[in-house]
Amino acid sequence: MSLKKFIAPNLVVLLLLSVVWLAGVDKVYLENDHQQNLSKYLQVQQRIVDNYVGETDVNVLFKNSMKGFVKSLNENSDLEEVDVSGTPADTSLQDSDLKDFRAAFSKFEEAYLYVANNYSDRDMKKLTEGAIRGMFNTLDPHSVYIKAEDSQQIQEDFEGRFQGIGIQFNVLEDTITVITAISGGPSDALGIMSGDRIVEIDGETAVGLSNDEVVNRLRGEKGTEVDVKIKRPRASNLLSFTIVRDDIPLTTVDSHYMLDDKSGYIKINRFAATTHDEFMNAAHDLQDQGMERLVIDFRGNPGGYLSQAINVAEEFFPRGTKIVSTKSRHSRFTSDVYSRKNGDLKDLPVMVLVNEGSASASEIVSGAIQDHDRGLIVGRRTFGKGLVQQQYELVDKSNIRVTISQYYTPSGRMIQKPYESGREQYAYEIYARDRATDDAEKFISDIPDSLVYNTTAGRKVYGGGGIVPDFIVQEDTTLSAQVYNFILAKRVDFDFVRNFLDNEGEEFREEWQDRFQDFRRDFTWNESQREEFIEMLVNRGMVISDDVEEPQVEDDKLYISRDHLDDLYWMGQGRVKAELARQIWTMEHFYPVFNDYFNDILAEATNLWDEVTQLETLAAQRSANE
Question: What is the pLDDT of residues 221-241, one digit of tens each?
């Protein structure tokens, strides 16, 4: 019996079962892989049609799915290339006037069965996944297909613990692109950052790997090592890292501490299931220490759970204050969200630190605080992600994430930046922003009047491309990034501290273990340790030369003049001291030391409390006049 004859009688049953699955009834698991693949395609198609935020054209979805299907058909170079001309899989012959998704499914089924009957050496599951990815290429960059094994990984990222190098990534144009280094993990400790492209793993090319292959090669047991080479935007040479796999901490509040007698500081790295509880525990602890005003650090926070962003935001407002709106072509995904209580922090002066790595949920909180003149936003223009996704599980435990609505700040701003130029350009737009000039001012000068809005007190704010801070602090270009990156890439900070603790750890702990604040204020490296630090750098590839005016990296070596050694030592002293705090105490203690040395935005913010007071006065006057 031919495969087609075997499958065809079951398709009516398949469609009926699909209706049951799509209705939310318990899933039925089919023994036949082909039935499962076809069911999966149908599920994805209907989920998009029924839930996507914008209008969907079944013809466009289908044609792009067929392009993905055919592309996957010939991706395996070990197999003979398939010519689909004149067959049901020929994309040039596809109907351009399909009436609904059922008609599109029927056309896909025909192409699927043709390939399954005639090319038994093809992996039909991978071809189906190729078709699904093709469908998503017609949507926004945040609507994606997630394989079953990747779904588990993403769930772990937000709710559990795993062992690996600690990055979130996407494969864009066949290249592994770091979305974020998970705070406190080994990649974060080495300075691997958003936008880095991993091009080599353990001496072999990493270009062209699938998500599965990336996970298999980067995850592993605690204590094992993996060597990677990274291409960093704006860097002329590849960076080499040896990453020691470890347990990946998944707490979302990196650090909280008192900046001075009155000012508290809380750094949130993303919004996961426990963020609100972690945040409030930190805030209450700081209040017990005398906190009268708060700095929240959202820099590098890529977002996460919308519900957690709302929970955090409403702590700063009275009951009934609008926090965010969501709009969609579907009424069930359109809503206005108001604070459900009088927030515990509603009378606390607040500042929020942001940069181009702040996205989604962090922009929701920042937007609400800015629009209601509740606090001051400080830093650089944020990423610009204003789309809300819903995740749907498929028959084989894979998932799709579909954008169901767009969010708007209380003033009516949509924060989402344009994405019509393609997914790769969208992802790397933040690296096209000019760090040497005022990106935010340029953004404001080019913005149309239709994207200019007013806060509650009448101040101008801007939509269409992230949150523009109230007080802009550009990236410090005077600090030599090449020197700092060299220290991290060569693991000098980590290894120096390890050597130090191996030789002097017992004495150090005896003196400082119970005196962190004294350590932060008083500890310095002595002259012998300075010489050891310089020697380690030389052994790792630093060349001291009077022939270079500015530090530069070439062929994996750092060339630096003797005149710059003092600057190098200053940077090293701060980074190594912060690393020592991490290794002796916890990640919670890394940031107070790090911020003492390297945090220009935070230093600027601590001088702006008078502006926060003026903002409060302005908002109160406006309220009294209404």
Answer: 889 999 999 988 667 789 999
In 333-375, beta strands by DSSP E: 335-338, 350-354
Nearest to 230 by CA among 189, 166, 175: 175
Percent of the chain with pLDDT over 70: 87
Do 64 and 138 meet the contact criterion of CB atoms below 8 Å apart?
yes
Instruction: Assess whether 552 carries a catalytic annotation.
Output: no
Sheet holding 552-554, edge to edge: 542-544, 557-560, 552-554
State yes or no: pLDDT of 319 exceeds 90. Answer: yes
Give the separation between CA 541 and CA 341, rounded to whole angstroms.
Answer: 58
For residue 389, indicate whether it is catalytic.
Answer: yes
Considering the candidates 328, 389, 398, 480, report the single residue annotated as catalytic: 389
Q: Is-contact 382 466, C-beta < 8 A? A: yes
Q: Residue 603: CB partners within 8 Å, gap ≥ 6?
A: none
Set out the domains of the chain in order of their start, with CATH numbers. 3-139 (no CATH), 161-248 (2.30.42.10), 253-389+405-475 (3.90.226.10), 481-584 (no CATH)
Catalytic residue among 65, 255, 360, 583: 360
Q: What's the pLDDT tens digit per position in 576-606?
A: 999 899 878 877 899 999 999 888 889 989 9
- Global pTM reads 0.78
Query: Measured between alpha carbons, how far is residue 91 from residues 34, 59, 83 in Å?
Result: 21, 12, 12
Structure-token match 């191996």, residue found: 502
- In 158-252, the DSSP E strands lie at 162-164, 167-172, 175-181, 197-201, 204-205, 225-231, 239-244, 246-248
Joined together, the tokens standing for residue 461 give 């704010």
Candidates 385, 417, 490, 577; catalytic one: 385
Length of the chain: 626
Nearest CA-CA partner of 302 in 430, 215, 187: 430
